[in-house]
Amino acid sequence: MPKDAITTRAADYNQWYLDIVREADLAEVAEVVRGCIVVKATGWALWELMQRELDDRIKATGHSNVQFPLLVPKSFIMKEADHVEGFAPEVAEVTRAGGEELTEPYVIRPTSETIIGHFYSRWIRSYRDLPLLYNQWCNVMRWEMRTRPFLRTAEFWWQEGHTAHASEADAEEETLRILYDVYADFAEQVMAVPVIRGLKTENEKFPGALRSYCIEAMMQDGRALQAGTSHNLGQNFAKAFEITYTDQQNTIQHCWTTSWGVSTRLIGALIMTHSDDEGLVLPPRLAPIQVVVVPIYKNDAERTKVMAVVEQLTAAWRGLLRFKLDDRDNLSPGYKFNEWELKGVPLRVEIGPKDVEKGSVALARRDIPGREGKRFVPQAGLTELLVELLAEMQTALFQRALAFREERSARVSTYEELRQQVERGFAWAYWDGSNADEKRIQEETRATIRCIPLDQPNEAGRCVYSGRETSRMVVFARAY
Amino acid sequence: MPKDAITTRAADYNQWYLDIVREADLAEVAEVVRGCIVVKATGWALWELMQRELDDRIKATGHSNVQFPLLVPKSFIMKEADHVEGFAPEVAEVTRAGGEELTEPYVIRPTSETIIGHFYSRWIRSYRDLPLLYNQWCNVMRWEMRTRPFLRTAEFWWQEGHTAHASEADAEEETLRILYDVYADFAEQVMAVPVIRGLKTENEKFPGALRSYCIEAMMQDGRALQAGTSHNLGQNFAKAFEITYTDQQNTIQHCWTTSWGVSTRLIGALIMTHSDDEGLVLPPRLAPIQVVVVPIYKNDAERTKVMAVVEQLTAAWRGLLRFKLDDRDNLSPGYKFNEWELKGVPLRVEIGPKDVEKGSVALARRDIPGREGKRFVPQAGLTELLVELLAEMQTALFQRALAFREERSARVSTYEELRQQVERGFAWAYWDGSNADEKRIQEETRATIRCIPLDQPNEAGRCVYSGRETSRMVVFARAY
């Protein structure tokens, strides 16, 4: 684990990202399967922790998990006009199975609105069956041309929630509940990633949606990353798949449906929010290992002495902390320090013979690199201190990311200011332009409207492009 | 939820199974995707509980979870001779993606030995990299012609462990550790399903394995169900995929690999071990709802009185019991009783105005149907009683299944006895026949050698078919 395994952000930001993915045991590009990755042990452990936290929130808001088929009849994808346009070009098709050509091909689900719509139309009969609140954790596949581990891959892993309601208001309430209580809460409290809660413009909404909401985060290069989306699908899919119910007046009505998802892309967001030139930095709530203990000794006598104290100290940690004792004999302490820094372990405890004598340990904090983050503390009260420091670090990472985003955000009032601001971060601007204006700006600046934030200022101003007065403010940025 | 929603076992065992799958909200056949199912809310909740228990054991034995691609280059499947023969005829192929024909098709993984072998050959360099102990939870696909929910479906969900070792002994130890400490322990302690731990014959082993071990359970029709397999793959895949390492003498050696899996088939095993003519019966450790509370009242005044006591009683249950309060106002208590019996909830607590006065509740136990399973107990000490009864029921279900299996098992010493015994259950027989003999018996009796049990009697006898003396005993049965 050479110290220079990671390219610095300043030297090459993209290579820095790829180096961390590789060296921190997160993922590997599966060259033999185009656009796909192998998610390695640390990467999948991270995803499992994310899943647990998200799943708790999804269940707490009344949803049950189910599992629909991987394959979707190709004709289903064609039933909703916008959906076809969005997904048909990038599906993988199964045309042969069990040694025979299929009469109708299947596609591997790029998302499951269509196959789920088919079943909902069979399951829902009466208003009493509503709302129907289901979610599934699964793999999906989109044949992307330009891929990058976690951020954009042909196969990825996600949860997709699909719900059906009796009214537009109910569907809208669901869409926003997921955005706020599940996604934004998870991103900020657990990932320590500050997000803007917003509405997508018509250009950027999900193919087939009435309205798409999103949470948007800022990465360390100032670009935006869409970290989760929640769609009010209106009656579009209900009409394409005949999802109807009989209301209390005995009239047949179309349902209002929603869908919402977050994916392994969040691992990319996590890396690019917190990590540094030494490697991965993980918020304690998502760290598969929160504390690593490195014993230091030169001979068997020292080893015995040190290990006895290590055992005493760690006895109380089980169930309280996720920790690892790195007692590998063939590696130097310095090598181990580097390795665990690179893999993003929040706290490192070092104990050598001198520490045993003094009743102390050395303690290093991953988010404060170098000497500043290291100090000697008494063994007495260590457990409580570790728990406290993990909580403190969770907050500190969020605050640091928030300060970074604020520093890289600015209100702009002219198009020239907008051009300059999207070079470094988020440009907040009044907006009253058309879809065509938005596309022109994208061509000229490579920036898009990431969202119309749901928290709007209570004032009006002039549109950054048309100059017309408007009370709507949007966020422009270049995006992943 | 009519009382006669479930066909009796005596009338039609197969229909009984399908009725439970449907009525207990476990799964639905997805007619639009051949051979596939939708796993519904109760079914998936069951699977999640199974996963949690298995995953804990898999991690406790030193394995990490990872995730390999869904797609496998078709040429990979062809690399191991026996593996081709076993799996090539039943794969689904992706021949077109992103709007273009692929030059080399992919198959959807029927199992992942080949793609994982490819990566292991890149990852493993030295003896220091061994053992490599990985597992993945995922979906797989085999284009089966005759399907049945959970028991045999085109897409199913499973875990597949894949490990690499330096020696045959290490691989064998791993294979047996999984069989005993993970699979058999889980089946008996958690599923309450007694299993025989055994070795597969050459005819029945996994395509490409050196030795296949299995756990075999008996269903209520006397047929066997293979509930999990653990394979010592020898050096077959290591040679096909060049998985090598440099040993301590600096010589290049082929690794010894293993693979092992259990799947959503276990849900089928669970149904057919414990359930009865009233519906699903679940062992408490896997019941998504362990206790259901049904309040009984005729008017608002009674409702208020009853619900106050319900709240008091259930306040202590959170975190201790998985429970549900069924306070639906539009359904009668009788309807609710039927529904929860059908869905396999282990314990039902009923509280009406009279119970409030008397300080009692009515308590019904799912594994003892009718009046016998119902009694009145004091509200004081109810929580402790419920916890105790759940543990008791867990043991009782295992004991009942074990007694059933023993009653349906017999030693046979002649071929005629064997023929008769496999009509009703397991036939234990001395065996020294050939592979061809085994196949002939299968043609004549529809029974196969389920396994050579690892616990063998310390004696010898005459082979049931050839009459030759042997010390090897096997179990014949018809199987799912």
UniProtKB/TrEMBL annotation, chains A, B:
Single GO molecular function: ATP binding
Location relative to the cell: Cytoplasm
GO biological process entries: prolyl-tRNA aminoacylation
Alphabetized SUPFAM superfamilies for the sequence: C-terminal domain of ProRS, Class II aaRS ABD-related, Class II aaRS and biotin synthetases
UniProt keywords, alphabetically: Aminoacyl-tRNA synthetase, ATP-binding, Cytoplasm, Ligase, Nucleotide-binding, Protein biosynthesis
Annotated EC: 6.1.1.15
Stored InterPro entries: aa-tRNA-synt_IIb, aa-tRNA-synth_II, aa-tRNA-synth_II/BPL/LPL, Anticodon-bd, Anticodon-bd_dom_sf, Pro-tRNA-ligase_IIa, Pro-tRNA-ligase_IIa_arc-type, Pro-tRNA_ligase_II_C
PROSITE patterns, A to Z: AA_TRNA_LIGASE_II (PS50862)
Record family assignment: Belongs to the class-II aminoacyl-tRNA synthetase family. ProS type 3 subfamily.
Function: Catalyzes the attachment of proline to tRNA(Pro) in a two-step reaction: proline is first activated by ATP to form Pro-AMP and then transferred to the acceptor end of tRNA(Pro).
Entry domain remark: Consists of three domains: the N-terminal catalytic domain, the anticodon-binding domain and the C-terminal extension.
PANTHER family linked to this entry: BIFUNCTIONAL GLUTAMATE_PROLINE--TRNA LIGASE (PTHR43382:SF2), PROLYL-TRNA SYNTHETASE (PTHR43382)
Protein name, UniProt field: Proline--tRNA ligase
Species: Candidatus Viridilinea mediisalina
Gene expressing this chain: proS
